[in-house]
Amino acid sequence: MTLADQYRSDGCAISFELFPPKTSDGIDSLCENVERLMQFQPRFFTCTYGAGGSSQGTTLEVLQRVKQLTNLPVASHLTCVGSSTQQLCEYLRQATEMGIDYIVALRGDPPKGTTEFSVTEGGLRYANELVDLIRQNFPNLGVAVAGYPEVHQEAIDAQTDLGNLKRKVDAGADIVITQLFYENSDFYRFRDDCSRAGINVPIVPGILPVTNFKQAQKIAGMCKAAIPNQLAEAMMKNDSAEHQFRVGVEHARQQTIDLMDNGVPGIHYYVLNRSAAAAELLDGLQMAGT
Predict the structure, then answer these.
(1) Are 254 and 280 in contact (CB under 8 A)?
(2) pTM of the shown model
(3) Largest alpha-carbon pair distance within the chain?
(4) Which domains does the chain have, with CATH numbers?
(5) Could you state, in chain order, the average pLDDT of each consecutive group of 10 residues for the chain (290 residues)?
(6) Could you confirm whether 17 is annotated as catalytic?
(7) Looking at 17, 61, 250, 280, which residue is catalytic?
């Protein structure tokens, strides 16, 4: 089954994103969380890696463990940061040998301590070039790319950002997974804009449940995602961990229900290696295949 095929069935197909732990105990804990998430019959798992390409090896180790544990397809993130074309191809070769099914192809953020992306000698400047590299040399890999409902922080304007996305799709991307957002209206506007621009691959919303308001503010600030006033006010009424967890999970649950009612082909959950929030917000919902 291709990556695009995952979204051609009835219902709402879900997937989860993981982050590579720093220790072997952390990997064991992550696998326990993956087992809990399997009750929701996800279609696949993705795994990112650290800034500037750090922890790439751990990413592949995590994905290999997850695939053995779940027998599901797995996807590795891959960025242009700090790698030549030759190094990117070597990573892709290693990934395919280890049974990785899909790649989430990204330009990548500037390394820590810098403010601008710079091209590595012999490397790539844009994510569409990475998609093209994969399609030319590893045609059997599925490819997902990122979309930005509230516009990429470096884009001049929304139209320019949409043009960048279309180049990635035209280069051969199978699906678009969006950056996190907290107002579904932002996603619907983005989806309509994609349709008008001739972007016809599945547009999959990405959801990160807010379980700690300070952490959410930090993450949202990094990617220019607005936290609705109503959500912020509800969370700030009580700074206890339990209150913030309940409020954040309920908001994500209502987002999920509304997205499903509005016909999204799937939802991608950023779970930060914790299963509790995702499990609670998904409990009792009728997803694809359940």
Answers:
(1) no
(2) 0.94
(3) 53
(4) 4-282 (3.20.20.220)
(5) 89 93 88 94 91 71 95 96 93 96 90 70 92 98 97 86 96 97 96 97 95 86 87 91 94 96 96 89 72
(6) yes
(7) 17
